[in-house]
Amino acid sequence: MTHTKQNINGLMDILSRMLRETDDFVDSENDKAHIRLAAATTILRLAKKWDLHITPEVFHFTILIAKDSSTFVRTKFLNKAQKLLKEHKQPIRFACAFALAVTENIDNLRFQNYKYMAEFIEDYSIAACKRKLSSVRGAIVDYPAYVMALVDISNVDGDLELINDAALSLFSIFQALKKAEDSVDAQTTIKLHKLAEIGIYYFKCIKSC
Q1: Which residue of 12, 32, 40, 150 is most buried, as measured by CB atoms within 10 A?
Q2: Burial 123-161 (b: 16+ CB within 10 A, else e)
Q3: pTM > 0.85: yes or no
Q4: Quick one: 121 exposed, middle or buried, by C-beta within 10 A (0-12, 13-18, 19+)?
Q5: Where is this gene product found (predicted)?
Q6: 3-state secondary structure of 8
Q7: What is the pLDDT, as a whole number, of residue 167?
Q8: Tens digit of pLDDT for each residue in 101-142?
Q9: Residue 76: what pLDDT?
Q10: pLDDT, position 152
């Protein structure tokens, strides 16, 4: 099992370098775009089984493919994310890619991303409500609206002070989640801590921009 984990971590490191283009062995921009797409879609497929091995940094670079400079890469990546989410073969946190992509300048692509968001929220809200009504104990991270916490607040129109206040409150929530523990379900604690780490990392990235 340890050997398998080492292999997965090694693979994640390779994919991360492919996403960031740190290995300067390709000159063609078209080839670079296909490498970024291949890395991002591979992480999407691996996420269902190996999500705990996807670090906040790798997740961050993967999701940013939704705003890639290549329209081809953006479209293919979002289509793949939508397909896997629809089939429930991917953690719901990856749906925040749709929220990042709604700033798309091309009208039909922007409309498609809104459609993906609406379908995701409707589909997973129904599933979350069913778990709530059943004997199965659900977790707050099961609700699709939770992924909205990962949207870049700099893209929101409105009063800046109000947005900043909301961002500070949200950051405080992430800090609290990082210290929270579920006395019944240890797996829920892991999910909460993972979400908190990603949220805190994302806010730090926004602040440094």
Answers
A1: 40
A2: ebeeebeeeeeeeeebbebbbbebbebbebeeeeeeeee
A3: no
A4: middle
A5: Nucleus
A6: helix
A7: 60
A8: 766 677 677 778 778 877 877 777 666 566 555 544 444 445
A9: 95
A10: 46
